[in-house]
Design goal:
By secondary structure, the protein is mostly beta strands. Helix content is 3%, strand content 39%. The chain has one helix at residues 118-122, and strands spanning 16-21, 25-30, 35-39, 54-59, 68-73, 77-82, 87-91, 94-95, 99-100, 111-116, 127-132, 136-141, 146-150, 165-170. The strands form four sheets. Strands 1-2-3-4 form a four-stranded antiparallel β-sheet, with no helix packed on it. A four-stranded antiparallel β-sheet has the order 5-6-7-10. Strands 11-12-13-14 form a four-stranded antiparallel β-sheet, with no helix packed on it. Strand 12 (136-141) and strand 13 form a beta hairpin.
Length: 188
Amino acid sequence: QELSPRELTGTNIPIFTKISCGLNHTLAIDENGSVWSWGKSDYCKCGHGDDQEQPYPRKIEALAGVQAESVACGEYHSAVIDTEGRLYTWGWGGSWLAGGGHLGHGDRIDEKYPKLVSLLDDGGYRVSSVSCGEAHTLILTDDGEALSCGAGEHGRNGNASSADLLVPSPIPALDNTHVTMLEAGSAF
């Protein structure tokens, strides 16, 4: 257990320009726009297609050719926004008992590799920011619209309901408001 910061060591560690830390995994973008991950990879949240712990930064090959702009880590899922404003998510999709839908793909299926959230891409949304909670995801578009998806327990999706949202949906309380920043907590 590390109790104080230390420099990453190892072979071929790139220069990272952006980093996001989850409960026990980390995502980072290097100076070329590639995404790297390390840490505990339960539910494949590190994006390498398996649940093997990654003790050192490892490039996510499934995102080869994607120029990343932003990364976000949840408890059991991860997200990347590319320079074109497209959102990719992967990891735990949820369950009927614990809630789900936070990957935004319209189901509760786990994704072993980064997958484009096609509803947003097909709808012409350009994502500017994403924040991942325990089992929900908050999404901000470049025109200031706030969306959420995932487990609805405790009203965490901001829609006055405890129902799960399987696809990104507008947050009604923020209609007609130009939102500039969103942050998801663990359960709220």
